[in-house]
Fold this protein.
Amino acid sequence: MADLQRPGGELASRPIHFFWVVDCSGSMSYDGKMEVVNTAIEECIPEMASAADNNPNAQLLIRALQFSSGASWLTAKPVPIEDYSWTPLEANGVTEMGKAFELLAAQLSIPPMPTRALPPVIVLLSDGPTDSYKDGLNKLKALPWFKKAVKIAISIGQDADDDVLEDFTGNKELILQANNAPALAKMIKWASTTASMVSAPASKPMNADAVSTPAGSSDPFASANGGAPLVIDMSNIPNPDDFDEGAVW
C-alpha cells in the first residue's frame, strides 16, 4: 500500500489494519448467533468511524475474513472505515479455522503489509474449530506483525473452546465471553470501537495493556511507531455476568 499524502504533501497518519475473522460454520446458525453477529458488526461501523476520527495517529482500514468449510476474504483489500460496509454472512459447514489463519498469515507478511503501518488489530469470533488449526496458527505466530498485533477473541457460547482462543490471543484477558445475544452484541461493539483507538499511546489509562518495543528492535513496528507502546484500554471490558437476558447458548 502506498504512503498516503495529505493535500500539500504532508504525510498522512499511519495506517492501522483491522481484521474481522468470523466463524460462519453451521453451529453459528443455532439460536440466531449469525444474525446477531451480522447486525452487531453493521451497527458498530459508524461508531468505529467516530472513534477513528478521534484518533489522529492512525487511518483505520478494514478487512473481513470468513471461515467454515474453507475460508475466504469478504473484503480482499483494505477499505477505509468511512467507506466500509458489512456483507451479511450465512452459517453452514464445518469450522476450518486453520484455513482462515493461513489466509491471514499471507496478508500479514511484508509485503503485502506496509512497513510503515501501525500494528494491526485482529478480532476473532468463534465457538472453536473442528480442524487441526495448529499449522495455520504457527504460520501466524512466526510473523512479526502478528506478534505485535492486538489480538481479541470473542468466545461464542458456553461450549466454546477457550483453550484454542487463548492460543490465538496469547492473553486470557482478551477472550471476551458471549453466552447470549445481548452479550455477543456488546462484546462486538467493545472490541471494534476500543480497538480502533489502540494506537494512541499518549492516552494510556491506568488499567491498560501495553506492548512495548525496545529501541533499535528489528521489528517493523519499531520504526513505524518510534518504539512507543501499543495501548488498549482494558478497564472497561464488559462483564459477561451482566447479561442474563434471553436464552443462554
Remarks:
- Residues 33-53 form the longest helix (21 residues).
- The radius of gyration is 17 Å.
